[in-house]
Each structure stands twice: as structure tokens, then as C-alpha cells.
Amino acid sequence: SYSLQAMVSEPVKPCLDTVVLYLGTGTYLFQSDKGEIVFGGGLDRVPSYAQRGNPPMQQAVVSGLLEMFPAFGQLKLMRQWAGVVDVVPDSSPIIGPSPLPGLYLDCGWGTGGFKAIPAGGWLLAHLIATGGHHEISRPFDLDRFARGRLIDEAAGSGIAH
């Protein structure tokens, strides 16, 4: 488990209608329905459950935001926190049945969670409704670890090594 920084600005007029992810810095942002700019990144690779974050990581996240959108330098921050993200050894989520009957897993999304979980939810619903994996979710089954079939897609999920 690692801490991932998140920050929210004061509300501003609509200017973003999509999630933006800059792989160069690992910074992501989107605009809420209330107009707030929500941004984050800065995965602290020191295992921790701290939810305060730390100043060097906060600075890195703000720098990443300003590298993408220099005009956002005028934004006023309303709040900041660090959220705990779980990352599995291959940096890819686990989607599939657990060893316990009736218990399904959709976890380990790490830094890609809020951006990708709508698709993950659809895949999990398909699994529960049909009793079988969709072809997209099959490689993400928990048994990949026992079979030694780890997924090497960390770069595609925006995770810096």
C-alpha cells in the first residue's frame, strides 16, 4: 500500500470535460460538476497508510499540474489529502472469483482506479451475471500469480518505474 496525493481547487468556470493524465509526471486531473479542479499523483513508493501526504510529493503534484496547465497557477487550493492505494506485484488489477465461493474480487487498481473502474465494474458484472470471464478480464484473474502469468502493463496504466 502506498500514499497517493490528491488536491481540490476552488470552483472555476467549466474548462475540462475529460480526465487528463500526463505520463511524464504521473499527474492526473479532471473538473468536478461543481467546477473544482481535482488533481493528484505523486505516488510515494514508501509503503504507508498515511493520509496526510508529504511536502515533497505535494510539490511534485503541483509542479506536474503547472507543467500541463500553467494558467492553473492562479488556482486556490481548498484541501489536500493522501489516499491509500493498493498495488499488486504486476501493477495490474485483480478481477475475478476468489477462492471463497460467491466472493468476487475487483481490487488492486493502484493509481488507475478512478480512471478505469467503470470498465472494471462492467467486467465484474459480466463475470457475476454469466459465471465466466469476459475475454478482456480473463488475464486479470487472481490465479495469474499461481500460474506465473503476471501482466507487464505498468507503463500503460501510468505507473512510473
Task: Describe the protein in words.
The chain is of the alpha+beta class. It folds into 2 domains: 2-85, D-Amino Acid Oxidase, Chain A, domain 2 (2-Layer Sandwich), CATH 3.30.9.10; 94-157, no CATH class. The chain contains 3 helices and 7 strands. It is elongated.
Tally of discrete structural domains? 2
The quaternary state of the protein chains shown equals single chain
Given helix and strand content, the structural type is: alpha+beta
User: Mean pLDDT, as a whole number?
Assistant: 87
Quote the CATH topology of the largest domain: D-Amino Acid Oxidase, Chain A, domain 2
CATH class of the largest domain: Alpha Beta
Strand order of the largest sheet: 2-3-4-1-5
Order of helices and strands: EEEEHEEEHH
Based on CA inertia axes, which overall geometry fits? elongated
CATH superfamily of the largest domain: D-Amino Acid Oxidase, subunit A, domain 2
The poorly predicted ranges are: none
For the sheet with most strands, the description reads: 5 strands, antiparallel
Radius of gyration: 17 Å
Number of helices: 3
Span of the ends, CA to CA: 16 Å
What's a concise summary of this model?
22% of the residues lie in helices and 27% in strands.
Provide tags for this entry:
single chain; 161 residues; alpha+beta; D-Amino Acid Oxidase, Chain A, domain 2; five-stranded antiparallel sheet; 3 helices
Describe how the helices and strands are arranged.
Elements: E1 2-11, E2 20-22, E3 27-31, E4 36-44, H1 55-68, E5 77-85, E6 94-97, E7 104-107, H2 113-130, H3 144-147
Antiparallel strand pairs: 1-4, 1-5, 2-3, 3-4, 6-7
